[in-house]
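Thread: Modeling a multi-component assembly for a lab meeting

Hi all, long-time lurker, first post. My supervisor asked me to bring a structural picture of a complex we are working on to next week's group meeting, and I have zero experience with this. I have the sequence lines for every component (1020 residues in total). Could someone generate the structure of the whole assembly? Inputs are pasted exactly as I received them:
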Amino acid sequence: MNYQILLIEDDPIFTFLLEKGIKHADLKGETISFSNGKPAIEYLTNEYSDQKNYIIFLDLNMPVMNGWEFMDQLESFASTDNCMVFVLTSSAYRHDIEKLKKKALVADFVTKPITEFLLKGIKDSIEDRFEKNQII
Amino acid sequence: MKGDNILDTNRLNALMSFDIMDTPPEAIYDEITSLASSICNTPASIISLVDDKRQFFKSHLGVEINGTPLKDSFCKHLIIDDIDTLVVEDMHKDKRFSNYNMVKNDPNIGFYAGASLTTENGERLGTLCVLDYEPRQINEKQIDSLKTLAKQVVQLFELRKSKKTEEDQKLDLERKGKLLDNIVNATGIGIWERNLNEDLLTLNDQALEIYGINRDSLSEFNTDIWFDLIHDEDLPEVKRKMLACFTYPSVGCSVQYRMLQNDGNYKWLQEIGKVLQWSDDKKPQLMYGTVQDITEKKSYTKELQRIKNNQDAMINSSRDLMWSIDLDFNLITANTAFHDLVEKIQGHPFKEGDPVFSDAVPQQVTDKWKSYYQRALTNGRFSVKQKIQNPKKFWTTYGLTSFDLMYNKEGEITGITCFSKDITSEVLSQQVLISAKEEMQKIMDTSLDIICTIDEEGYFLSVNQASKAIWGYDPKDIIGTNYMELVHEDDKPSTKNSAATATSGKKVLNFENRYIHRDGHVVPMLWSSNWDENEGVFYCIAKDNTEKKKAEFQLENSERRFKTLVQESSDIISIIDLEGNFTYVSPSTTKILGAAPEKYIGTNAFDYIHIDDLERVKEKFNSIIDNYSIEIDSFRFRDINGEWKWFESIVTNQLNEPSISGVVVTTRDITEKKKAEKQLENSERRYKTLVQEGSDMICIVDENAVFSYASPTSTKILEITPEEFVGRNAFDYVHPDDHDYVYNEFIKIIDSSHINIKPFRFRHGAGHWVWLETAITNKIDEPTIKGIVVNSKDVTTKVQHLRAIEAQNAQLKKIAWTQSHIVRAPVARLMGLVDLLRDDKEKLKSEEREQVLNYIITSADEIDHVIKDIVENTINAIEIEDIK
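Re: Modeling a multi-component assembly
Sure thing. I ran the full set together rather than chain by chain. Output:
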């Protein structure tokens, strides 16, 4: 199974850090970065395939299209069978994210900065989901 | 005067009467002129007739023309001069004629001799004259002949005239006869002519038809046959009339009789006849007359007469008075009863046409009747009841007089009809009935026992006032209800049986049952009733049997009362010694304190009393030594559960009573009363707090939010007095922006009992807005309120605080957001970057490392900016006062 890792984050420093972290954590898959939700959703609308697994790191506060809007659109076509969304939050300010919690596509919330430790956990949960599913 | 003779109207009328002017020549006159001319030996002769303008020649021998204007006439001179003859031997030499046209010019008349045409009455119509062209002479004999001929002419005129008249008369008669026939035909009147000598009847068509006989058989229709056909009853009359008519000099006769017809029926005929000719010895010769069929008229008249007779009989046999008067109040007609009455009053009846006012009665009576008549004339029909008292005879009569107007065919009022009926007997019987009823009512009202009537179904038809005293119900409450509703449940079957006994015809005496009083208590009753089969009504008398019953149960009662007192009353009776130790306690403790009396025996009463009340109670109790009886005001006493009961006690000193040798304490549980008092006090206080001193304003509005009451606090809260509120609509004060919200909330109250309305703006008396929080309660169905209770609280400060807090909150949120999104971001970045460097393990290239350092600096700068912003935001933090 192919993995695609989508980074949706407007802050280039975070993107940089995330890319580094992913590399260090040795997450499988092709990494693609987007500066906000709009290019990301456009990409997915065109390229989405059942045959791929999508790991999506989503920042919430972004210009043009923010994380919430992106989620609303993603929900209309993406399936939990091959999609996991990790929501990046810059604080423990949970109010913003309450409404995202209920969404099945959202796998977890990750508070910035994303450490290697966190990415390891993420890696485990990804494997948990997709790799085990395949065995079954 | 000479000229006048020509124009004399008698002369002219005489001339005209002969109707001869301008008539064509006639041989007889021409013969006369011819004779005259030959006698006188003249070439010309003329019969000239002179009117007021000209002369006309009825005959003109030897002259062409048939007339001339008056000025050319020779003959007029005989008329003018009023002479019988005129002879002019030479016209040319006579100055009267020498200038005449016919003398001067052609035909140059030279000689004239004329004889006047004079009527018997001496009127001169003209002349018979002879003419010659040459002057000549005429002898006396010739003149006489001329005069004779002139006379002959006049006679001819007369003859002609009378002939003419005769002809005219004949024509006129024919015309008139025709007209008469037409008229006779049109009237349907038959005409007959009886030749009495020959006993012959002549009839016109109408008469034939009326008699019902053929023209063919007319010759046989002699007087005897006629008589045979006449009805036996009428024949003598006809004969009598006929005889009278035949006696000279009768003026005619008229008779009505019945004549038998072919179909067997009689026809009513009317004949009018007259003898036309009498013989010299005064015997009738010819009779002439008319006959008319009056059968219809006769039968109609007969019917009318019959009806009229009947009516008259009816009207006159009535004892009611009937009369009618004209507009001047003169009697038109009246019935016998009226006449009799008037005669009784004044000695003689009113004559028809006389005024209907009698001098025999007082003036005020006359005035009264005058006013009645006037009223009828102004207002039309009405009736009036009169009481007539006769002090001499000590009787009173009552009359009902009705007045109505009479109209003629044109609808004009012609008089007043009056009808007066003696209603004395009706009035008197009514009075007797009323007084009997009143008496009965009086008996019923004063009776202490219940007197009532009940119908077959058991519904009260009437009941006297005693029902109020005995059963607690007013008669009007009871009438119409079924007596069974009032009977005690247990007595219903026996009561029913008793009623059945009564309906079977037996009188029921002293039947006992129980009734339920309005207030619920049982009333023993003792009944006597009687069933009236004809009216289908029970007549009943019921006695309140309570006293008797009471006596019956006296013993039982007193026993039970004691039991009740001691066992079931809410009083505790106890006997204690002077130390307060119980020696006897009544069983009521079980109910009141939850513990049996035995529990208390031997214990001290003061041990159960509340510490706060103890001192007072002890002190009071100790005073019993000097008193026979004392009362101890409310104090608290602990029950078996440790709860406080409020008691009050009466303490009686019975220390010297050997059987008791103690103090008897009667204790009443007043806990409930105390609670109620407390509650009342509380609610009063609450009310006072709420209404008068509280910050709440209480108002009552109707469904349309119009104030009917506002508590005095309104003045304090809104600077609007209650008086100002009353009558105004609450929504007049509500802020326009809040109106819809408040209104929508308010209308919900119609369907629910209570609504809370969140703060809204309400106009303060001073004009600014205050925030009111309101609770409304529907009390429309509550009789004392009948409205919606509105409880409002000024929450302006609260709202302002809330707003301030909200604003503060928003500010805080902003700060928090800033913190999370702006501060956290660069910090998180820094942390990440630092981590990257620390855990680098030489994985980073040197240019990457450079980049990481640049990122660190950028992030640090960002943090610096953010902190500066936060500081600024915090400085601008909300001042509560600003929100107002």
